[in-house]
Amino acid sequence: MLDPTGERPMTDTDAGSDPDPDADFDGGNGTGESAGRERPLSLFDHLDTVRDRLAHASGLLLCTDFDGTLAPITDDPGDTEITAANEEALRTIADREGVAVAAVSGRAVEDVADRIGIEGIAYAGNHGLELARDGDTTVHPPAAARVEDIEAVLGELEDRLGEVDGCVFEDKGVTATIHYRQAASEDVPTIETAVDETLDEYGERLECSSGKEVFEIGPATPWDKGQVVSLLAEDTPEGWISAYLGDDTTDETAFRALGEDGISVFVGDETEETAAQYRVPDPEGVARFLEWLTDEGTEAIASDRSPGDR
Ligand SMILES: [Mg+2]
Hints:
Bound molecules: magnesium ion
Mean pLDDT: 88
CATH class of the largest domain: Alpha Beta
Number of domains: 2
Oligomer: single chain
Number of strands: 13
C-alpha cells in the first residue's frame, strides 16, 4: 500500500475564497473534491483549528523526526545538532501533563537519543526498527536477524566505493546508510549501480530506499515510521490525539498512518508533495510551532471536553 515515491493524489482542488480550515478535516465527503485548497495548509494560518482539535482531545502524543525537522541538515551527518530553541521547547512540552513525546528517526536509536538528549521521552531509531522507551530498547525481530547481512553488504560497498570522494558509509546496526551529499553529481550513478548490484546478491532479505541524498539499506520487512507511530498511538490513553512532524519521504508513512485523526506537519518547501495536513518551512518553523505548543497548545488540551470524557 505504501508508495515509496511519496507521491499521492492531492485531496483538495479548486481553492475557494472562503478558507474554512475545518472543511478539510470534518466536512469532507470522501470524494476528494469536497472543498478548500491544495494541501498542505500553512500551519501558522490554521493554529485556531489545531487548538480546537487539541481542546477536544484528552492528551497529545507528539512525534517528531530529527534531521531536517528538529535540526537543520548538515553536509556531514555527524555534525547535525538540534537547535537550542527546539530542544528547549521539546523539553518543556515533554514535562507537560497529558503529553507524551517520541522522536522517530532514521538514525540509530542511541545516536538520535544522544543528539536530542531529553530523558523520559521515547526514541524510535532506524525508522522504527528500534524503540527505546521506559528504560527498555527493543529491536523488531526480523531486523535483528539481518544484522550480519547489513554488516556484509556495507563491507562490500566500502570495498567497491571506497575511492569515490564524498561517499560516506554509516553502520547503524540493523540498517546502513550510504550518504552522497558530498559526492560529485557525476559519481551518483556509480554509487547507485553499486548499491543495486550488491543488494541483488541478498535477494529478498534486504532492500534499499532513498532519502535526501542517501541510500538506506535495511531488512526487507514491512516496518516503517508509520507503523511505529501507530504502535505508540495505540499505547496512549483513550481520547488522545497524535501529531507528527517530519521533512522526508520516510515521514510520509507516518503522515498516512495518522490520517485525518491526527495532526500532521510537513517541514519543507510548498512545492513538495506530501500527505501531511499542514506545512512549516524549516526547523525554525518547527521551533515556532513547538513554542506555541509549550503554552497555548498544551493549555488547550482537554479544555473542551465534558468531565465525563476526561
Ligand atoms: Mg528528516
